[in-house]
Specification:
The chain contains 14 helices and 15 strands. By secondary structure, the chain is an alpha/beta fold. It has a domain of 242 residues: 3-Layer(aba) Sandwich (Aspartate Aminotransferase, domain 2). It binds pyridoxal-5'-phosphate (PLP).
Length: 438
């Protein structure tokens, strides 16, 4: 139905907004927390056994989660941990990454990726992104060098980019591949679940993720030797025996642990959520792709390239405009039409408001900060080469450009058909006003 004159006037110019009720919060898994989580958590509480390895009556929630995770996604081994950040540190230490090593990572990521590399004593080597908003294989080829020990490939904003090309580069150049699947649990590409392309993969179950235990994470690897190190590293540096007690006798596994075990309470939450993950991502994917299809004739809005739409886990719609000014004006007008979440949510924003996801917004990186008095790892003799590296804006031209003129809309996992219709109507209304003729 054509819009009347007053409906045509943008809300930002005094017209009626498309909607007044806020959209639901992002936080995909949180909306689905219910009886199943309560029942499993209750079992742990009733058994008075919240520790995974021993206690009066362990309920084996974490163990069950790990077993079901392997069965669902085809991983050889899975270990639940306390966070996605810890998972990354464990993965790097399992691969023995340290001073003198570079880890290649895209400039659009999350600060945890950088902190894990720096705390390992290694140096981040930034790689540009492409139209998938994930690592650009061509820039990766250019940046790999003799010091490259690992590639940290982040499946950003719910969907993998050119992952097969990157896995092939890693293989042919003899560099280890870690997949950071924190933002993409339940995603896949051409039928292969994320986490199955690399040597090790990590996940996060923090509140903003596709499934949540409040906090939590997972490390997966098909390599049994690596996995043995992963298990020891996430704990106190050693394996455990059949009674769940530390066993220091294995000389090949005497390490320094990071204390990142998952408790059985978190395990109960994560287990209930993992059983809902396909439904959560299915709901987001359906809403998102209905919106994408409804906008695809608007040539002035360039939607992020997603190589395999069926494997998209769906939590973010990312789009680019001709320039920064248009991006900012479009998003402000869209918000005025009521396309935003409740107070405190981050649901509709230009990428310039997306903080620590962009390399040049991370002061600890640009200023090469250290956690210790001696400036480690920047000051380590094996890292002397890092003096030449600048992490300031300007290091990655595509990141800088896309950051300025791109925006995102989070896709809640509980959007109704009416919500989706409103989002589409608002986009088209603003586009009609800004891009004459459509
Ligand atoms: C890409 C990425 N890696 C790692 C993490 C860290 O996960 P966590 O918050 O569970 O430590 C996050 C999320 O916060 C993330 O988005």
């Amino acid at each position: 139905m054509p819009l009347s004159n007053s409906e045509n006037r943008l809300a930002i110019d005094g017209g009626d907004p498309v909607r007044t009720a806020p959209l639901p919060w992002e936080l995909p898994g949180a909306h689905w927390i219910g009886e199943e989580e309560r029942e499993l958590v209750d079992r742990v509480v009733r058994a008075q056994s919240p520790f995974r390895f021993y206690g009066p009556d362990p309920q084996h929630m974490v163990e069950t989660l790990e077993r079901e995770w392997c069965a669902a996604y085809g991983h050889g081994n899975a270990l639940a941990v306390s966070s996605g950040t810890a998972a990354l540190s464990i993965a790097l230490s399992a691969l023995e990454v340290g001073p003198g090593d570079e880890v290649l990572v895209a400039g659009y990521m999350w600060v945890s990726c950088l902190s894990a590399i720096v705390r390992a004593g290694a140096i981040p080597r930034l790689v540009d992104i492409d139209d998938t908003f994930c690592m650009d294989p061509a820039d990766l080829e250019r940046k790999i060098n003799a010091r490259s020990r690992a590639i940290l490939l982040v499946h950003m904003s719910g969907a993998p980019g050119r992952v097969a090309e990157i896995a092939e580069i890693a293989r042919s150049r003899g560099v280890r591949l870690i997949e950071d699947c924190a933002q993409a649990a339940g995603a896949s590409q051409n039928g292969t679940p994320v986490g199955r392309f690399g040597d090790i993969a990590t996940f996060s179950f923090q509140l903003n993720k596709n499934m949540t235990a409040g906090d939590g994470g997972m490390v997966v690897s098909d390599d049994d030797g690596l996995f043995r190190r992963i298990v020891a590293l996430h704990d106190l540096g050693y394996a455990r025996n059949d009674q769940g007690r530390l066993d220091t006798s294995d000389e090949t596994c005497q390490l320094w642990g990071v204390g990142a075990r998952m408790s059985d309470l978190a395990g109960a939450m994560a287990l209930a959520q993992s059983r809902k993950l396909a439904r959560i991502t299915g709901a987001m994917r359906r809403s998102k792709w209905r919106i994408r299809e409804a906008l695809c004739d608007i040539s002035q809005i360039r939607l992020r390239t997603i190589p395999d739409p069926d494997g998209d886990s769906g939590p973010f719609l990312i789009m680019s405009f001709a320039d920064k000014d248009l991006c900012s004006r479009f998003m402000t007008a869209l918000k005025a039409e009521g396309i935003q979440g409740p107070k405190g949510s981050l649901s509709c924003l230009p990428m310039s408001d997306w903080g620590l996801h962009w390399y040049f917004n991370v002061p600890s990186l640009t200023r090469k900060r250290s956690n210790s008095h001696d400036g480690f790892p920047w000051s380590h003799p094996a890292n002397a080469f890092a003096r030449e590296i600048s992490y300031d804006r300007g290091a990655l031209p595509v990141c800088d450009d896309l950051h300025d003129r791109s925006a995102l809309l989070t896709i809640a996992s509980t959007l109704s058909n009416d919500d989706v219709d409103d989002i589409i109507r608002a986009f088209r209304k603003v586009a009609n006003a800004y891009f004459q003729p459509l």
